[in-house]
Design a protein that fits this description.
single chain; about 230 residues; mainly alpha; Arc Repressor Mutant, subunit A; Four Helix Bundle (Hemerythrin (Met), subunit A); 2 domains; three-stranded antiparallel β-sheet; 10 helices; 3 strands
Length: about 230
Amino acid sequence: MNVQNTFRDSERRTSADEVFERLRADIVALRLIPGAKLSEVEVAKQSDVSRQPVREAFIRLSNMNLLLVRPQKATLVRKISVQDILNTRFIRTAIEVEVVRKACLTVDEEGLKRIKDNLKQQKRAANKRDSDRFHELDYEFHHLICAAADSEFAFAAIAENKSHVDRLCMLSLANKSGMLELYRDHSAIYDALEKRDEEGIVSMTRLHLSRLDETLDDARKNHPDYFED
C-alpha cells in the first residue's frame, strides 16, 4: 500500500466534505439562491483547495438534487421542485411519526431536559430574529427527538430529506412570526412527549409537517423565479 497516496486520498476526502458542507449550508440558507451559477475554479479558490474536492462536492450536491451540473457549462443551484418538496415531506412524515411513537416509550429525563433546553434557545433566537441560529436549533431539535427514541440512525435520513424543504422554510423564517409558529409546534411536541402521549405527539407531528403547504403557496407567490415547476 502506498501510504503517501492513502494520506492524500484521506486529505482530499476531508476537503471535499468541508466544501460540501459549506455549499450545502449556503444553498439551504439561500445565500446561494436558486438559479445561481457556480464555478469549480472560483469555489476552489475561495476554499483554498484544488478542483478535485470541489468536483466531488458538486457531485454529492447534484445527487441530492441541489445542484445542476452541466458538462462544459456553468453549474447551477437547482431551482426548487414542488414535486421534490412533496416527496420529501411524505418520506419525512413516515420516518418522524415512527420516531416520535418510539420516543414516547424510550425517552428519559436527561433526554427531556436536553429538548427543553433546546426550546429555550429557540425562543431566544426567534425573539432576536436570528433565523440562522433558529435553523440550527431546529435541526438539533429533530436530532434530539431521534436520540430520545434511541433511533439516531433515522436522523441521517431526516437530515438528507430536510435539505430540500429547508430552502423553502428559510423564507418563512425571515420574520419573527414564522419562527414563533415553529417554536410553538416544537413546544407542543415536547409537551406530548413529556406526557408520553403517543397519539397526541403523532397528531402534532403531522400538523407540524403539514404547515409546509401554506409555506409553499406563499413562496411560489412571492418568489416564482425560485421554482422549476
